[in-house]
Q: What sequence folds into this?
């Protein structure tokens, strides 16, 4: 059985799924998206992702294409038709199809919706987490509204390519003050020399990561100290540990920054513990 996609009210074979050439998501990046981790066929952090979706749409003046309940049915049906038990679910909502014009189209244009699902090899993901990954740094060059989860990701694409060419998995953006903002597709964290967890605050033009938010609760429940305080690449390299978070990476230890080791160059106990605790919590609360 091949992959199935949901496109504007219809479930179609993945290879036959298309959007109109004047879809504003295609022409203007006038669209938002969300990605859910899927555990045992259920959506992790569902409430957080729905809330962020609704906020992103509101910030761009795009109406919610359907009720949350109806959208949940579409998402779950996409998982069912693709027989996904462990994976990722992708949702994209654009302003819709209209004759090309920079300004918003006249009333009557309906948002366009696509949903796809893909499998994740959890055993391979755990093996990668046990090894840890490298990150590279790159100058912050994105627009001033990174809090909106839009599909306008060209700077992120270029940053990811830079990381890949360097043999790394992720790139961290560094602002004009020399401080790490976030990753190209993740939030950035360290465990500093005092054992305090640190990550950038969301007022600093970074994405309000849903995994990040859930992990904050896990950290507090574990009795660990966390501060929303920036750090430099040098502080990351001299930290006890570093890691990244996101729906696709969960909690993933970082063992090098720009080719230089973090700590002793191996995944640390805090990140490894938080990964386990987050997954346990996500499985227990998925819908």
A:
């Amino acid at each position: 059985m091949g992959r199935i996609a949901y496109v504007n009210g219809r479930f179609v074979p993945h290879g036959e799924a298309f959007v109109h050439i004047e879809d504003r998501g295609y022409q203007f990046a006038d669209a938002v998206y969300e990605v859910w981790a899927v555990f045992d066929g259920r959506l992790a952090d569902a409430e957080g992702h729905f809330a962020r979706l609704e906020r992103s749409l509101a910030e761009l003046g795009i109406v919610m294409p359907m009720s949350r309940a109806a959208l949940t049915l579409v998402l779950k049906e996409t998982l069912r038709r693709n027989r996904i038990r462990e994976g990722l679910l992708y949702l994209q909502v654009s302003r819709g199809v209209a004759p090309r014009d920079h300004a918003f189209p006249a009333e009557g244009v309906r948002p366009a919706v696509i949903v796809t699902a893909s499998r994740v090899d959890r055993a391979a993901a755990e093996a990668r987490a046990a090894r840890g990954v490298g990150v590279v740094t790159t100058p912050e060059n994105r627009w001033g509204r990174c809090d909106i989860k839009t599909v306008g990701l060209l700077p992120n694409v270029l940053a990811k390519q830079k990381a890949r060419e360097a043999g790394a998995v992720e790139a961290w953006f560094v602002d004009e003050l020399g401080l790490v903002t976030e990753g190209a597709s993740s939030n950035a964290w360290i465990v500093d020399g005092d054992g305090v967890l640190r990550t950038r605050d969301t007022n600093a033009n970074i994405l309000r990561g849903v995994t990040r938010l859930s992990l904050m609760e896990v950290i507090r429940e574990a009795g660990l100290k966390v501060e929303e305080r920036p750090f430099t690449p040098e502080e990351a390299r001299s930290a006890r540990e570093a890691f990244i978070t996101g729906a696709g990476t969960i909690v993933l230890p970082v063992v090098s920054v720009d080719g230089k080791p973090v700590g002793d160059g191996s995944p640390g106990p805090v990140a490894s513990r938080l990964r386990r605790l987050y997954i346990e919590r996500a499985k227990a609360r998925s819908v």
